[in-house]
Each structure stands twice: as C-alpha cells, then as structure tokens.
Amino acid sequence: MSINGLSSDNYGAPYNITGNLKIPDVSNGKIDKNKLNGVVYTPNWIVKTILDYLEYGNNNISNKKIIDPSCGDGAFLKEVVERFITDALNSNKSISEIKNLLEQNVYGIDIDKNAIELCRINLTNIAKKYGINDVNWNLINNDSTNKVWISKLFKKFDYVVGNPPYIRIQNLGKEKRNKIQKEWELCKSGSTDIYIAFFELGYYLLNDMGKLGYITPNTYIKTSAGKDLRQFIKNKKILKSLIDFKHHQIFENATTYSIITILSKRHEQNTFELYYGAPDKKIKFIDEIDLNNLNDNNWILCTNGVLVKIKEIESRGAPLGEIANIHVGITTLADSYYIFKNPLLKEKTAIIKLKDGREFEIEKNILKPIIKASILKSSEDEQNNYVIFPYKLKNNKHIIIPENELKEKYPLTYNYFLRIKDILLARDKGKPNPVAWYAFGRSQGLDTSFGKKILTSPLNKKPNFIVWEKEDYTFYSGYCIKYSGDLYGLVKELNSSDMEFYINHVSRSYQNNYKSYSKTFIKNFGISNPKIIGEFKNKYTLAKKVNNKNKNRDTHKGNKRNNKNNNKTIGQTTLTNYLSINSNL
Which of 53, 237, 519, 528 could be joined to 317 by an S-S link, Cβ 3.0–4.6 Å? Predict the structure, then answer.
C-alpha cells in the first residue's frame, strides 16, 4: 500500500499489503500508555463533539480526505469510518465504491506500531459490519513530527482531527528536541510542548478549504510557550470555535485541563465562538469573542462584558508588579532532607528526624525558621518548621558556605550531608549542582525570601494574602510580595472581591476549581488605594530624578573623556604631521 508516494512499509508498519492482519503482542488487548509517547486516549463523546463541530457528517464526506496524525488505536478514526460508511450508503454508493473511497480518503499516523495494528483491527471490524472486506487502510507507523517525509502530505486534506501527544519538550531526548525546534516554527522558543507542533502540522496538512479539530491541554491559551501559536491563529484568522473545559477533567487517569480547538482556513474572521464544556457532556455557548480584545500574553476566555471589567481593573491606579516586587521562595529539590517540623532544639544542637525514622544531631545555628506558604492560614500560624540553611551573608548576599568551612564549623551537619550525599546528588535528574553538592537545588529566594512580606499560596480557591512580619523567617511553596509601604493597606486590596473576580477569569484553572496565584497572573492587578498610589508616585518621581542626575553625571564624565581623547588625537596628529614634514631630518 502506498500513500501519495509514501510507502508505509518504509516506516516500519508491521503488516503485509495483502491486508492480512498481524496481531501485535499486547496484554489484554491494551496498549502501554507510556508517557514517553504522550499517550492520552480520548473519550468517545469528545470525538463525536469535535466531528460535529467540524460538520463531519451527512454532507458527502465520502469524497473528503481526513487524517488523524496521532491516531493511536483509532479513537477518532473509528467514529470517522462509521460516519463515512453511513454517508456513502445514504448516497447509494456500492460496497466496492465505498472500499475504494475508504482507501483513498481515511488516513492515520502513529509512532506506536502496536497502536497502529490495533487501529487497523478496529477499523477492519467496523467495515466488516457493513460487508466491506479487505480494506487496505492508509495507516502509517511513523513520527508525524518528521517534517521531511510528512511534508509530502501537506495541503491534501479537508479535515485534520486528533488528540495530539502531550510531552514537554525538555522530556524529549536532545536530538529529538533539537529536531522539533529546528523544523517547527511554533516550537522554536521557550519550554514548549510537542502538541504545539501538531497545530502547525495540522494547518499545513489542510487544503485551502480545510478544517481542524483537536482536543489538547488548555495551556497554550495562557502560557508563554503558547504565545507563538496564539499569534499564528490570530494572524491567520482561522479560529472558528473554542470549547474550554476550564477546571473540569475529562480524561481518566490523566491530570489534564482540556480545550477543544476548531480551526477553519475559510473562516477569515477576527471573531470566534466561545463555549464552556463540562464532564456531563453539556456544552454552553458563552459569547462571540473578538480576537482583538484578547491580550496577546494571555487569552482570557470569557464574555465581552467580563473582558471590559478586567481591562478596567488592569488600567486603574498602578499594576501590583510595578508597586511591589513578587518573588518565589527557596527551592531545595529535597524538602524532606532539608526541612523539618518540630525538631528537638537543645542549647547548641538540634535533633532532626527523617521520614524513614533515622535521627541526626546537627548544629542549631545552621537552622532557619521557615514557613510553608501553601498551607499558611493566618499571620498567627506557627508551623514550627526549620530548614537547614548552608549559606552565610557576604556583602548582604547569601553565598554557600565552602565545604572546608562547613566541615570545620558545622561538623555534625557536614556528617549528616555525607550520609545523604547520594540522595542530594540524584536531585534534578542527576545534574551536577553548580554551587555545591549540598546546596539547595535552586538559588532562587536565598535573599528575597527573608524580611517583612506578604505571603500567598501558589494555588487557592479565593485570595488569601497574609502579612508576615517576622523578618528572620524564610519560606517555600508559594510567593511573597515585598513592599516598603503599608503592607496591611496593600493586603486589603489583594484580598478584595475584585482580586477574586480578576483571578477567576485571568488565571489558570486546576482541579476542584483551584486557581493559580503565580506572579504571571497577579502582577497586572491594578492597585487603586490612594495612599499606596501616592507613595508609588513619590518613589517613582524620586527614582526618576536620581536616574536623570546619574545620566547627567555620566554625560559630563563622557564629555571630559571625549575632550581628553580629542586632545590625544590632536597631539598625535600634530606629531605625525611634524614627522611627515620633517621626514628628511
């Protein structure tokens, strides 16, 4: 069997061209859902929904070409074949004609050869129900992101459907990662996901009148990794519909927040239809949205009225990210070996206990009190947590205590680190720690996590910003807001109904309707408190004066330097001229 010059035999599909099926060796008829291949299998009602929104039904579809470039065992293609055959029979086509049309117009590709073989079996069984036998299915076992060969299929399809693999690009091998970033424009920047490449692939597989329907994670709507895709969709004017499932999870055994995207090359409009979906299979129309009303950095999927209010909030006063500094806490990458609840504090030492029951005695003065922001309830909350902090202050910056100094000044702690050295070396997938093998996994928050601050959990159902005035405490698992003015006045605005409304619409949704309170989503919240705005304007004016003064001083120094250089040049020129004139001397 060949597909427009692409012989499937060349790509490792384990079947023969006579149509005889070779059953793959899979346990209980199931495929290994290996995360390496990004496999998440699709509920049938989602498949039907996508095909319905593509209007793939009784409209002469037997003469239209359709492809699933990540077909798996055939979740989409099974429904496609059912509809295809029904439409062909309703058009009074013969069994022989339908067989030929299936071979010409239904395509599938997958990187998993076991999946391809199960797909072949599933499609064959459906065809047999209608008396259609020996179909040579256009199913290829290969990697759809291999642009060299798949480009031969560009612009050939009326429909592209699927549930592309979800794999963070950093989880791919270096060669594969570099190849994808080199070949696919939408994956060139940032920590992207392979499903982004499938959008670009799908667009190029479509002919000039073609439509695409995918179910994917909704991350491309808001993340920096999806920005190029958002811009691509906007510039091409191809977005027809979005069905956002928000915090609802529709896949079994997969923590994925999903969205259905319907693209059409013939749409050619700046507007699209927005729907909200739910696990009960109900889909609700929300509004017709103008793409020009969406922020390029974060598509907020809600009604036009809500978009207006969000714009009002962001444009008032001054953004939180300009008034204050927003920081993450410390990151050890081995919390259970650095952070301890209720250690036994003695006069000069402390007893720490690991989860496996082992106890160690370490120096008391290497411990710092620490707050876990994600579970903090109030400013009175005493968590009694301490972190081993192998750093010292130098020029108001925390630097790692050198190993020899650690061994000499903190011998008990050093011995403890030696006992867990293998565990510490295994952090970050075994990558060497550039600071020291006993240092925290990341250097973030070493200085910014101390002092007076406002703390918040990274995930919450409602705003819960808490003033923390104990300056000697560091923190982890959350964010802090550093502000030199009235912390309580600021926290009042941060815990307002406006913030709850704002986050409910601009932020990412998680299970049970938790929302992200990361810097990305809170930094543009407009602060309107007159006192805070007044303080901000005064500091801004002062900073501007200092900046201008420094610029003037640098300009003056530059002029003096230029004059000095000019004098040198004049002197050199004069000497050169003198030597030239008196060359015979």
Answer: 528
Alpha-carbon torsion 364, 370, 375, 377, what sign?
Answer: positive
Task: Name the DSSP letter for residue 28.
Answer: G
Burial class (CB within 10 angstroms; exposed 0-12, middle 13-18, buried 19+) of 454:
buried
CA atoms within 13 A on the CB side of 566: 6
pLDDT, tens digit, 9 for 90 and up, residues 376-424: 999 999 899 999 999 999 999 999 999 999 999 999 999 999 999 999 9
Q: Which of 256, 259, 277, 278 lies closest to 166 in space, CA to CA? A: 256
Sign of the torsion formed by the C-alpha atoms of 25, 27, 28 and 34? negative
Using alpha carbons, select from 327, 371, 376, 373 the residue that is nearest to residue 477: 373
Closest by CA to 402, choosing from 435, 362, 368, is: 435
Report pLDDT digits (tens) over 161-174.
999 988 877 777 78
> 349 - beta bridge partners?
363
Among left, alpha and beta (phi > 0; psi -120 to 50; other), residue 428 is left
Contact 209, 158 (CB under 8 A): yes
- CATH code of 2-301, in short, is 3.40.50.150
pLDDT band at 180 (very low <50, low <70, confident <90, very high): confident
Give yes or no for a contact between 115 and 139, defined as CB atoms under 8 angstroms apart. Answer: no
